């Protein structure tokens, strides 16, 4: 079964079309990069896919649930992580796990077992009782990702998950994404880093609300006669009429 299927998904704010008839499918366990210049409509599209915003028109299912009629089921079957919203800084790692596990409807026993597993996998024995605010950004992001996939969602939405960390920490973070994908979790990722776009199975590039390109990184390089994805991205983004807000 496909993890995400959308057809002609559109969102208007008044007379302004933020997302304009976008269509694609994402497979279970696929790592899908969702790229676009500032203001292209990525956040708006992602909010519709997460069941947070009702589309104006079009169709879609996420994790097998309808994005109009089954928004609560969509929310229960996905994970979400962004650089801006992730962990509570004034709680410890363990307290964050308890809180989010509870929100995701996991039992106390499950939270304890899974929590211990995560602490062990990420070698965080010494940090587990430290307040999140005292941790380095790279560790915070790893913990955020572990928490966002704590309840084994079908899909995890990652909104610029690695902003602000160095390339080595980003590489380690991507290993976590690959491991999750191996366990069958689909990763839907927005990023501004083109090296990260190369790590995706397929990427789409959005310009002014529309998807202008969608394929594997190597096919896109071929299609645009480009040496790298940066060139592909800028060829398309240059056409954009929208800019920063
Ligand atoms: N609630 C809203 N009301 C009116 N316009 C909106 C609203 N939300 C977003 N927009 C507009 O829709 C367009 C797409 O915004 P969106 O945040 O989805 O883009 P984005 O690709 O995520 O950009 P960025 O990378 O800068 O976050 C922008 O022009 C934005 O101003």
Percent of residues in helices comes to 25-40%
Unreliable stretches covering 5 or more consecutive residues: none
Largest sheet: 6 strands, mixed
The assigned structural class equals alpha/beta
- Molecular shape: globular
Provide the CATH superfamily of the domain at 1-77 and 154-161 and 188-245: P-loop containing nucleotide triphosphate hydrolases
Tally of helical segments: 9
User: How far apart are the first and last residues' alpha carbons, in Å?
Assistant: 38 Å
- Percent of residues in beta strands? 25-35%
User: How many β strands by DSSP?
Assistant: 10
User: Overall pLDDT, averaged?
Assistant: 92
In the CATH hierarchy, what is the class of the domain at 1-77 and 154-161 and 188-245? Alpha Beta
CATH architecture of the domain at 1-77 and 154-161 and 188-245: 3-Layer(aba) Sandwich
Hetero groups in this structure are: adenosine-5'-triphosphate
CATH fold-level assignment of the domain at 1-77 and 154-161 and 188-245: Rossmann fold
Order of helices and strands: EEEHEEHEHHHEHEHEEHH
**Strands side by side in the biggest sheet:** 6-7-8-3-9-10
Our Rg estimate from Cα atoms comes to 18 Å
Describe the structure.
The protein is an alpha/beta fold and 245 residues long. The protein is globular. The protein has 9 helices and 10 strands. The mean pLDDT is 92. The strands form 2 sheets. A 6-stranded mixed β-sheet has the order 6-7-8-3-9-10, with helices on both faces. The chain has a 4-stranded antiparallel β-sheet with strand order 2-1-4-5. α5 (137-148) runs parallel beside α6. The protein has helices at 42-49, 71-76, 93-103, 108-121, 137-148, 167-182, 194-198, 217-223, 229-237, and strands spanning 2-13, 16-27, 31-36, 57-62, 65-66, 78-82, 155-159, 186-190, 202-207, 210-215. It has a domain at 1-77 and 154-161 and 188-245: P-loop containing nucleotide triphosphate hydrolases (Rossmann fold, 3-Layer(aba) Sandwich). Residues 13, 16, 18, 36, 38-44, 242, 245 line the site of adenosine-5'-triphosphate. This is ABC-2 type transport system ATP-binding protein. It comes from Dysgonomonas macrotermitis. GO terms for molecular function: ATP binding; ATP hydrolysis activity.
